[in-house]
Amino acid sequence: MKVLVVGGAGYIGSHMVKMLSKAGHDVTTLDNLSNGYKDAVKYGVFVQGDIADADLLDKLFSKNEFDGVMHFASYIQVGESVEKPSMYYRNNVTNTQVLLDAMVEHGVKRFIFSSTAATFGEPDYTPIDEAHPQKPINPYGHSKLMVEQILSDFDIAYGLKSVSLRYFNAAGADPEGELGERHMPETHLIPLVLQAASGRRDFISVFGTDYDTPDGTCVRDYIHINDLCSAHLLALEYLLTGGETKVYNMGNGQGYSIKELLDMAREVTGVDFVVKFDERRAGDPAKLVADSALLQKELGWKPEFADLETILQHAWEWEKKYELWVNVSD
Length: 330
Hints:
The chain is an alpha/beta fold.
C-alpha cells in the first residue's frame, strides 16, 4: 500500500509510520511539527506542511497515488479546547475537511480517523460500546464527533469509505525503544507518573479520591501504542478489501484505578516517588472502560500488550532515554 499519514511526527503517528513501513508499505508523512518532531519520523518520506494548505495537498495527491490516508493531526488537550474552542474547531474540523475535499477531488477513497472516547461525555454505563449515546462535554469531544458525522456524509455523497477508531487512553512506547511519548507540555498520566519516578518532576498529583470506585480514584482503560496502531493497520486492510464505513471503540476492556497504576509504576521503576492528593477536577468521569468486542469480532484485532505492567515497562524504558532525545533538534 501507498499511505499518507498526516500528523505522522507525533506520538501515535510516528509509531504508525514505523509499523506501516515494517509491514512493507510505502509511507509519506505530512506534519507541520506544531506538536511533532521531525526526528521521530524514522521511516518513509517526510513532508513538512499543514493539512489546511490546499495547494500543498493538491501537489501531494497529484504526485502520489495513495491507497489511503491516516489522520493523527488533531489537537487533543481537553482543557485547552475549553479555553480555545476556535483553535480546536478550526484545526480538528475545518482543516480536516480541507484534507477530505482534496481526497475526494483526487479520488482517494479510504480514510482512517483517530477519534476519541471524549465523544461519549459522562458515561451512562461501562464498559462503553458503540451503541452508547454520544454526548460530548467539551469542544475537543465535539470536534471529533463532528468529523465522525462529516465522514458519514462524505460516504453517502462521495463514496469515501472510512474507519473511525475511538481511543480511550493510548500509552506505552515502542517495544524496541526507538520511539515513545514526548508531548511538550506533557498532560498524559503515565508519562507524568514516570517523570516523577525519574526525577524530572518533583511529584505527581492525583485529583480526587472520593469517586464511586473501589479505592476512590478514577478508573481508566489503557491501550498499548502498538496495539492501537495494529488496529489502524487492520482497519486500512479492511477498507482495501471493500469494507464499508465503520466506527469502533478501542481499549483493553480492563480498567485500572489511579492508585493501582501508581502501585504498579513503583513496582516497575523501583522508585517510591512523591504523590500529592488534590480535589477533583471538573469533567473527570469516575470510570472509562472500553468495550472493544466489535473491533475484535469484525476486524480480528487482539491486543498483544494488554497488561498494565508491560505498558509501564515500555514507557519506563523510553523515559530513561530522556537525556538522549530531549536536545535533538527538529
